[in-house]
Amino acid sequence: MAGKLNINLAAIEQNYSKLHRGDPSSVAAVVKANAYGLGIEPISKRLWAVGCKEFFVAEVSEGVTLRTILPTARIYVLEGFSRDQIEIVVKNDLIPVLNTPEQCRRWIEIGESAVVHLDTGMERLGLSIEEFVEMSSSNRLKIEMLMSHFARADEPDHPFNQTQVNRLLDAHRLIKERFPFVRISLNNSAACLAGMSDFSDCGTLVRGGIALYGGSPFRTSEKGDRLATVASLSARVIQIRRVKAGAGLGYGSTFSVDQNSDIAIVGLGYADGLPRSLSNKGHCTINGKRFSIRGTISMDTFHLDVSDAEVSVGDVVQIFGGAPTLREVADHAGTIDYEILTGLGHRLERVYFD
């Protein structure tokens, strides 16, 4: 019995408005990983309808999928392309983010403009400062946007953020005379909400990701709490067992009840994206009352201790979205909002509404 994932498209729109503050052209939507697990087609269509015209995906295959959904959108591919993908990129009018000198050289042969990714300290994708200086000196490379990625945007006051801003601005000055209209893209959800950097002297493009989907991009959730809740995950009680004192619950008997107890079996498990690390941690709600998760979470089910409560087979169990919140579940699982959303399984019934 699969769980249900309710997805509020009006909340997506509300969070997008919070990011762009009246100028939809200033924010592109990051819809990689199937729009963070929530469904790329309905979400990208809704964002397009409210003024979002630029989108980021991680890889070429995601760009091809999005192109069939939004024929005229500007679609950027964060990983660029491999040798055998360049024809697919051109055919589908995708804009690669160039991360290596080799990608730059191959794209020069195409003759189109592209986005250049400068590594300002993330030590992940992107050209080093030295590689950028060398490649940007080529009169053949056409640059329409210079981007980088904050390593510590979830800590808005960390001094390394300004270091990265300065490095990107230095690189921008190197090419500004030759490309006077080149834009900068550095701010993500956290940087945008916290107002971390101001590039008022040049065009900027914010990459809105987790905030669109109602997740907090910060290590502490105060700022994230202002976002509208987008996703709510629920399941149902499929059995209630009366177990005797001393009985062990689930695989490995990792929890033993100390008295006769009523245990609800819920039809949802790690195959649906409920982290196994929530075993014996956290809680869910039934009819507004919180109940503790007990025992090891299975592939398809988990246990709740519902002793001394009016709970019946068929009752709805709220996993996240309201009480508990997405952030609470992530904290109890020892992870982040992003991983909870992107890990949601394909068995879930996804219901879209306003």
What does the secondary structure layout of this molecule look like, with pairings?
Blueprint: E1 4-8, H1 9-20, E2 27-30, H2 32-36, H3 40-49, E3 54-57, H4 60-69, E4 74-77, H5 86-91, E5 95-98, H6 101-110, E6 114-117, H7 129-136, E7 143-147, H8 159-176, E8 183-185, H9 189-194, E9 206-208, E10 231-243, E11 248-249, E12 255-256, E13 261-266, E14 283-286, E15 289-294, E16 302-305, E17 316-320, H10 326-333, H11 337-342, E18 349-353
Parallel strand pairs: 1-18, 2-3, 2-9, 3-4, 4-5, 5-6, 6-7, 7-8
Antiparallel strand pairs: 1-10, 10-13, 10-17, 11-12, 13-16, 14-15, 15-16
Helix pairs in contact: 1-3, 7-8
Describe the structure.
This protein is 28% helix and 23% strand. By secondary structure, it is α/β, with parallel strands linked by helices. It has two domains: 9-216, Alanine racemase (TIM Barrel, Alpha-Beta Barrel); 231-353, Lyase, Ornithine Decarboxylase, Chain A, domain 1. The strands form three sheets. Strands 1, 10, 13, 14, 15, 16, 17 and 18 form an eight-stranded mixed beta sheet that branches. An eight-stranded parallel beta sheet has the order 8-7-6-5-4-3-2-9. Helix 1 (9-20) packs across helix 3 (40-49) and helix 7 (129-136) packs parallel to helix 8. It is elongated, with a radius of gyration of 23 Å.
